[in-house]
Amino acid sequence: MISDLRLWAHLGCSPEERHHLQAVGIDIQLVFVDSPKAIETDELEDTICYYKITKAIEAVVASKPFHLIEHMAKSVYDVIVKTIPKDLLSKIEVKVCKVSPPMAGVLGGVSFVYSA
Question: What is the pLDDT of residues 18-56, one digit of tens each?
């Protein structure tokens, strides 16, 4: 699991909101079909590279403005599928949280979870 990958994105429904960078927190849960060999070998080549995944996510989030967290979550999912061979995983879950939405009284952010 990658927890609370904190990034800045042009995100929001209005052009004014998208003009300013918004903090987003991204959680990724990856469920392996079989346990990676790295649990026995302690070798990086026997598992996935979390650094490579986070860099790919950073690139997709920075690549364009997003109107909705739902679309961002699917875009993050798609880049993970391109980064990790899909046959290694039985499930990928992406949670995108807009940390400070412009909504009175919402102190814990708003989030959307996409999984497949």
Answer: 899 999 999 999 999 999 999 999 999 899 999 999 999
- Catalytic pick from 55, 82, 86, 98? 98
Domains (range + CATH), the chain: 2-115 (3.30.1130.10)
CA 58 to chain centre: 8
pLDDT digits (tens, 9 = 90+) for 72-82: 999 999 999 99
Whole-structure pTM value: 0.91
98 is known as an active-site residue? yes
